[in-house]
Specification:
mainly alpha; two-stranded antiparallel ribbon; calcium; repeat
C-alpha cells in the first residue's frame, strides 16, 4: 500500500543518513535513489538473506541467469575484491570504485612505490610532472596542475603520495569540513 511504501522510503532515507555519519563516506557518493537500487540488487544476489554475499549466493545468482558453469576460481576472485565479507557497505564501495574509475587505495600506492625505490614515502613533484607529461596517457600541463592542486607537497617539492592516495580514494578532508 502507499502508506507502507512511504514509511519504508522514509526508513531507508533515515538509514542512509545514519550510514553517512559512519566511518565510510561511500554513501555520499550516490543519490538516495541509487543506493536503494543497489540495495535491491544486493538483495537479489544475497540469496540466503544473511546480509553477506558468499560463494553459494553468487553461484545461485549465476544459475538463475542461466550460467551454470562458473568455476570456483572465478567466484573466489570476485569475492576477493571485497577483501573480506561482502556486506552492503562493501558492495556499495566496490561499485563506487568501479563507477568512479578509482582504483583501490593499495593499487594506487603500489603504482607510486614504483617511483619511490628507496621507500621514502614521497616522490619529487618536478620528476613526477615530467613523467606524467611524457609517458603513456600523457597529461597536459593543466591536468598536472589540477592533480597537484590537491596533492600534499612539502617545501622541498616532494609529494607525500600516501596522503595523496588517501585523498584520491576517500576525498579531501578539507572539502568535507
Amino acid at each position: 500500500t502507499l502508506l507502507s511504501l512511504q514509511a519504508s522510503k522514509k526508513a531507508a532515507a533515515k538509514r542512509g543518513k545514519t550510514a553517512q555519519r559512519g566511518s565510510s563516506n561511500v554513501f555520499s557518493m550516490f543519490e538516495q535513489s541509487q543506493i536503494q537500487e543497489f540495495k535491491e540488487a544486493f538483495g537479489c544476489i544475497d540469496q540466503n538473506r544473511d546480509g553477506v554475499i558468499n560463494k553459494s549466493d553468487l553461484k545461485e545468482t549465476y544459475g538463475q541467469l542461466g550460467k551454470l558453469n562458473v568455476s570456483d576460481e572465478e567466484l573466489e576472485s570476485m569475492l576477493a575484491e571485497g577483501k573480506g565479507p561482502i556486506n552492503f557497505t562493501v558492495f556499495l564501495t566496490l561499485f563506487g570504485e568501479k563507477l568512479n574509475g578509482t582504483d583501490p587505495e593499495e593499487t594506487i600506492l603500489a603504482a607510486f612505490k614504483l617511483f619511490d625505490p628507496n621507500g621514502t614515502g614521497v616522490v619529487n613533484k618536478d620528476e613526477f610532472k615530467r613523467l606524467l607529461m611524457n609517458q603513456a596517457d600523457k597529461f597536459t600541463a593543466e591536468e598536472v596542475d589540477q592533480a597537484f592542486s590537491v596533492a600534499p607537497i612539502d617545501v622541498a617539492g616532494n609529494i607525500d603520495y600516501k596522503s595523496l592516495c588517501y585523498i584520491i580514494t576517500h576525498g579531501d578532508e578539507k572539502e568535507e569540513a
